[in-house]
Amino acid sequence: MSIEVDWRAATSGPDGEALAERIRSFIHDKFQQVALPRFIRSVQVHSFDFGTIPPDLEVKDICEPFADFYEEDEDDETSDVGDATTGKEHGSLAEDEHLDDPMTSGHPLRLPPRMRERRPEDFQVLCHAKYAGDVRLSLTAEILLDYPMPSFVGLPLKLNVTGITFDGVAVIAYIRKRVHFCFLSAEDADALIGSDQQEARGQDDRPWSSADPTASPKRQGGLLREIRVESEIGRKEDGKQVLKNVGKVERFVLAQVRRIFEEEMVFPSFWTFLI
């Protein structure tokens, strides 16, 4: 069953602007925690825009929420809307079927987390999500030039991350006054909704190439199929950029965007919204 999303209503207005700012701030903070290569002094994330094109959603299943969503956090009562929380440190749904004996696994024994009580009205929706929209992330990376001496001067590189295409399974769970949201890895998606996801990926998993040098290659089995970046560095002379060799910076930024997405948005990580 397909779902039509009123993307403009969902992403505009005070609530939409607040969510966009929270995502911008979240990604900015993640970049501040990254060890930068020596040729980059700093990275600043300036804006996040949802764009105007909605994702295509198809409901695959309605079921009970994952047990991870019932784990209580110490700051449950004071957590803010849109905070990203992690259900587990490691693992996947497939791995949960083969739990190790804590007495023989060699890992220190950990106390089980406190769990909220399940209620009959709790539910979870699994959706096949396809996206090829115009979401945009704008940031600036300051590049260090080593001529005529090391770290002689820094030039700002303006980057717009866009052209994102996505194909995967989204999870939306409603528990009390909270909505938990995340994506599933390809392995977990196949385990839960069958092989039609693999068949749908089919030819998309072939080696990908493009004449556009700013487009990143597809990762085998990755949820983010494609990301492009538009760049502009330093001042311009006669309409031409002073420096053009910014490929290393572009690749670094795109790699970090992928990493942040996969670490913070793919189960067992998830975002929780208070409603």
What are the key terms here?
two-stranded antiparallel sheet; elongated; 275 residues; 34% strand; alpha+beta; single chain; 10-stranded antiparallel β-sheet; endoplasmic reticulum
Describe the structure.
It is found in: Membrane; Mitochondrion outer membrane; Endoplasmic reticulum membrane. Belongs to the MDM12 family. Residues 86-96, 198-207 have a biased composition (Basic and acidic residues). Pfam families: Mdm12 (PF26544). It is a peripheral membrane protein. This protein is of the alpha+beta class. It has one domain (2-93, 114-274). Helix content is 21%, strand content 34%. The protein is built from 5 helices and 12 strands. It has helices at 7-11, 13-32, 186-193, 196-201, 247-264, and strands at residues 2-3, 40-49, 56-63, 84-86, 123-132, 136-145, 153-175, 178-184, 224-233, 236-237, 240-241, 269-274. The strands form 2 sheets. Strands 1, 2, 3, 4, 5, 6, 7, 8, 9 and 12 form a 10-stranded antiparallel beta sheet that branches. Strands 10-11 form a two-stranded antiparallel ribbon. The longest helix is centred in the N-terminal third of the chain and has 20 residues, at 13-32. The chain is elongated and about 65 Å long.
